[in-house]
Every structure is written in structure tokens, then in C-alpha cells.
Design the sequence.
């Protein structure tokens, strides 16, 4: 939940990212990490066999929304890959910060077995 009003475009957090290449024989989809990783919308639209990105920050705990109020911008530099959590519209005090889960179809499918 937002503890203060947040303006559109505000950088909410910068967090390091670990990349897990897709490997069918050792997929992290079968672990507890499944609920917390990201996939690239550009990659996912072409194939489900894509890299998984584990963000070591608050973005990993944002819930899904069809019309989210934040998004993740991926930034790579000489140190590695970083997740920038950015407000994509104004967020009011008490409002939940949400993201659009690219792989929501896979996430929904996994909940049938929990």
C-alpha cells in the first residue's frame, strides 16, 4: 500500500535482478519461486520458453491487475540487470501498487494444484 501520494512517472524502487535461462529439464516453475519471477512481455509473446527474472525487491510482491498503476522497466548496466519499479499513473495514499503479470495464464494454471 502506498504510504503517500505518488505521482505518475515516480521511480519507486531500483532492485537487482537474477536471470534464470529457460531449461526444460530444470525449470523453476515447479518451485516456490514461480510466484515471484517475471518474464519479458516481448519474449513471452513469441514463446513460453523464455528467461525468468527474479527481482530482489518490492516489485516481486506487487499483485496483478488488468489495469495496473505501476510497471517494471528493465535497465542493464556494467554491474548487471536492474528492475526499476515506476508509477505509470498517480497513486493515492492507501492504494495498492499493482503490476500486470505477463504470464498470468501460467500463474492461474498453477493455482489449481495448490
Sequence:
Amino acid at each position: 500500500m502506498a504510504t503517500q501520494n505518488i505521482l505518475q512517472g515516480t521511480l519507486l524502487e531500483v532492485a537487482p535482478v537474477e536471470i534464470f535461462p529457460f531449461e526444460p529439464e530444470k525449470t523453476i516453475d515447479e518451485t516456490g519461486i514461480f510466484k515471484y519471477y517475471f518474464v519479458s512481455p516481448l519474449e513471452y509473446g513469441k514463446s513460453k520458453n523464455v528467461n525468468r527474472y527474479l527481482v530482489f525487491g518490492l516489485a516481486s510482491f506487487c499483485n496483478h491487475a488488468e489495469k495496473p498503476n505501476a510497471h517494471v522497466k528493465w535497465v542493464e548496466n556494467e554491474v548487471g540487470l536492474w528492475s526499476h519499479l515506476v508509477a505509470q499513473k498517480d497513486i493515492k495514499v492507501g492504494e495498492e501498487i499493482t503490476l500486470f503479470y505477463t504470464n498470468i495464464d501460467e500463474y492461474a494454471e498453477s493455482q489449481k494444484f495448490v
